[in-house]
Amino acid sequence: MMKDRGFKYGWNIAIQEIPETIQTLWAATRRFLTRFPHYGVFDPAQSLLPWVMQVNADSDDYNGCHFWSNFEIGSLAFFRSQPYLDFFNHLDQEGGFFYERWGDAPVHSIAAAILLKKDEVHFFNDIGYNHPPIAHCPTESYLQEKCHCDPAINIDWQDGSCAKPYKDLDPHFVWDEFTYYRETNPYRLKS
Questions:
Q1: Which GO molecular function terms does the record list (predicted)?
Q2: Which of 12, 18, 60, 79 has the most CB within a 10 Å radius?
Q3: How confident is residue 55, by pLDDT bands cut at 50, 70 and 90?
Q4: Which residues contact 26 (CB under 8 A, 6 or more apart)?
């Protein structure tokens, strides 16, 4: 489905990063965008940048939102692309991987927000994932039929989740039942 639909990145949990581990990551990202402005997706209708940005009167800073990499599906073509490699190499030269512990989750998420269009990123709402104390469990009844997790532990709409601001940016990222069956039917196992 990812290849056929043109998805380059998929996720099912989005939370905020620990601020102490990313103190200079956004400044380094801004330097990257100054150096490689042609890589960014800046069209408001297609951009994910507002999802990772905290904009106020004083500054635009990284809000810490990231796709939790414990469950992610990424296109190797994306991670091997020149724009991604240039971003990664730029960050590597900045030294934050070593001095601040920049992790794969915020780096992948910021890269996706900068380099991918909204329609190239997919929310795997139908796949439950539990890594205590954080879990994603589908809350829709039609998805619960084949899921063995407790929707009460779902973090998606709780404080600290970044699914809420993602929904503000892309209100249809959670597929309704009709869309889910239409889009996934060719890929579901037949019993």
A1: alpha-1,2-mannosyltransferase activity
A2: 12
A3: low
A4: 61, 62, 110
Pull the structure tokens for residue 150.
């407790």
Of 72, 94, 100, 145, which residue is the catalytic one?
72
Q: Which two tokens stand for residue 89?
A: 């190499």
Q: Which amino acid is at 179?
A: T
Q: Determine the length of the chain.
A: 191
Taking Cα atoms as reference points, which of 16, 1, 3, 2 lies closest to residue 161?
Answer: 16
Q: Retrieve residue 143's tokens.
A: 């998805």
Paired residues of 11 in beta bridges: 72, 123
Q: Decide: pTM greater than 0.85.
A: yes
Q: Tokens for 4, please give them.
A: 């056929």
- Of residues 188 and 61, more confidently modeled: 61
Q: In the annotation, is 72 catalytic?
A: yes
Residue 2, amino acid: M
Domain edges within the chain:
2-187
- Identify whether the C-beta of residue 153 lies closer than 8 Å to the C-beta of residue 135: yes
CA–CA dist 58, 47 (Å, integer): 22
